[in-house]
Amino acid sequence: MTSSTIITNNSHARIVEFVSTLFAQHLAYTGMASRVEILNEGGFRSDGRRQFELRSINIDLSQQGHADGSASISHGLTHVLVSVFGPREAKNRSQTIHDRANLNVELSIAAFSTGDRRKRSRGDKRVMEVAGAIKSTFEPVIQTSLYPRSQIDIFVQVIQQDGGVLQACINATTLALISAGIPMVDFVCAISGGVHSTNPFLDLTLIEESDVPNLTIAVMPKTQKVSLVTMETRLHVDRYEEIFRLAIDAGLIIHEEMKAAVLARSKTLMTCIDLGTHGGEEME
Amino acid sequence: MISFASFPSRYEDTTYEKTRHHASVKEDFMDIDDAESFEAQGSKLTCPGESLTSSQAYMRGHGTYVENEEVIASVAGTIERVNKLVSVRAIRSRYNPEVGDLVVGRITEVQPRRWKVDAHSRQDAVLMLSSVNLPGGVQRRKLESDELQMRGFFEEGDLLVAEVQAFFSDGAMSLHTRSLKYGKLRNGQLVVVPPILVRRLKSHFLTLPCGVDLILGLNGYIWVSKHVKENEQEGEEGFDAEAVYSNVNDDIDDSTRAAISRVTHIIRILTSRFIPLSDTLLLEAYEWSVEHGSDVKDLLHQDFGDALVVSITSGQ
């Protein structure tokens, strides 16, 4: 069921490494290491992944409620749901822009989504920041000039978080916009990356995110243009380029996954349409 | 490990082939430059960012853009080609109006000499005071007194059926109701479906033999109402204001109410499975549901709906 994505695949004997993982874990439990190891001697991370291995991705593009487009994506345990409404008449006349559509992003983080239960209001600084990041990521990608004086509403709901919330939000928004039939220049594929001493790795979990310097990038696969780079921690400048390039490659892999989901969904819908049309013709 | 899944889709199968990727292995999805493959298969699918063809040989249509002399898709959907024009039609999108289309809409706002109408499009449509019929059927210029009683014709929240008359420079559409077929709607209920599922038909006013009238708006708004006999319709001579712009429903007997809700349920069942609506299909489905189910509420069961769809699409 997993679609775990391996980017590099060195063909070492995995069994040997597994044993060494066990040994490392044993050391950790017996008090040799004080906290979770980010990368053990066998080259495995705390959740058993290799350095460049991404978490399993699950995409659901089925219709939710009366939204024009909706998508939910999960990267491992991080789960985000996005509904898109529009382009439609702006609720607030002051928000209309005469020559292009206005993008309205609202983010809500479920109180139960993290370990410590806590309610975040819409005005929360962190929430506003992520919403702002999503908005600025998509403004150059959506062809807003086709819809003057309209508004596109994007409602993002974080259901579970285990690191990489922004990346999941951006990927889910891309899929929801596509399923709403809103014209975009390209997909936007986001991924996080971090560095532990000198070892770069991808798609961080919550534990890793709080421990190592990390960044999130959003890439447009066709041109490989980068629409967003954010860093909330300090990263050594010498390590930056390596992790940046690696993240772009990972973005392309995520693109394959998203594209397959979109095409499969389109195919399903087209078959239904054909089925109904031909069934009707035969009756006449 | 506990994992929460979102509510799974009830109707659609969303599984797709899961693959393991390696950066060096990439499959190419399409190669449409050769014209034969273009025409051979009716519907080729594409998604944003996919290069379709070179812009020197082809012209770009809707759903595409040009960059570096390449025509590139900007929406996910089917590729269509008419001579040298390449366009991509999105599978689900908002309604794209065209002049002459029949739409059902809801008044959202009353403004000086015009109404704003929500018609499931990218902007609210405009219905000018000069493009509605006056009560009494008289043809004359609209006076200031008419302007003052605009809410007597249409109020916020009223539903109406109209035709797309023209476009404004910013792409907003202008409607008109200057025909006896058009005007305020009552005695029924509204169903909202994706616009792509309403195809252009010879007539969008359908009368089903079960005593139900249907108005299939091309914008995906469908009005299901009690049947009004031809000779009882508000005619040219007896064109009185009360009847045409009335807000009061007629008496609707129980069997008609049941028929109306049966038809709405059928429409919902078909559209939730993404099957385009047509008069024959609706009729077939109605007969099937009367034969097989004793009650209207049976239609709400999923397996009953599945059986209905299977039986009517198999073309018995």
From TrEMBL, chain A:
Compartments where found: Cytoplasm; Nucleus, Nucleolus
Annotated Gene Ontology cellular component terms: cytoplasmic exosome (RNase complex); nuclear exosome (RNase complex); nucleolus
Residues in Exoribonuclease phosphorolytic domain copies: 53-183, 186-249
Signal peptide start-end: none
Any single Pfam family the record assigns to this protein: RNase_PH_C
Listed GO MF terms: RNA binding
This protein's UniProt keywords: Cytoplasm, Exosome
GO biological process: nuclear mRNA surveillance; poly(A)-dependent snoRNA 3'-end processing; rRNA catabolic process; U4 snRNA 3'-end processing
InterPro entries: ExoRNase_PH_dom1, ExoRNase_PH_dom2, ExoRNase_PH_dom2_sf, PNPase/RNase_PH_dom_sf, Ribosomal_Su5_D2-typ_SF, RNase_PH
Gene3D superfamilies reported in the protein's UniProt record: GHMP Kinase, N-terminal domain (3.30.230.70)
Subunit architecture: Component of the RNA exosome complex. Specifically part of the catalytically inactive RNA exosome core complex (Exo-9) which may associate with the catalytic subunits RRP6 and DIS3 in cytoplasmic- and nuclear-specific RNA exosome complex forms. Exo-9 is formed by a hexameric base ring of RNase PH domain-containing subunits and a cap ring consisting of CSL4, RRP4 and RRP40.
Matching PANTHER family: EXOSOME COMPLEX COMPONENT (PTHR11953), EXOSOME COMPLEX COMPONENT RRP41 (PTHR11953:SF0)
Family per similarity comment: Belongs to the RNase PH family.
Protein name as catalogued: Ribosomal RNA-processing protein 41
Species the sequence originates in: Agrocybe pediades
From TrEMBL, chain B:
Keyword Lyase: no
Molecular function GO labels: RNA binding
Keyword RNA-binding belongs to the record: yes
K Homology domain mapped to chain residues: 188-228
Domain named Exosome complex component N-terminal: residues: 45-82
Protein name: Ribosomal RNA-processing protein 4
A GO biological-process term: TRAMP-dependent tRNA surveillance pathway
Localization of this protein: Nucleus
Superkingdom to which the source organism belongs: Eukaryota
Keyword terms: Exosome, Nucleus, RNA-binding, rRNA processing
Gene Ontology CC: cytoplasmic exosome (RNase complex); nuclear exosome (RNase complex)
Principal location listed in the UniProt entry: nucleus
PANTHER family in UniProt: EXOSOME COMPLEX COMPONENT RRP4, PNAS-3 RELATED
Entries under Pfam families matching the protein: ECR1_N (PF14382), KH_6 (PF15985), S1_RRP4 (PF21266)
Family (UniProt): Belongs to the RRP4 family.
InterPro entries on file: Exosome_cplx_N_dom, Exosome_RNA_bind1/RRP40/RRP4, KH_dom_type_1, KH_dom_type_1_sf, NA-bd_OB-fold, S1_RRP4
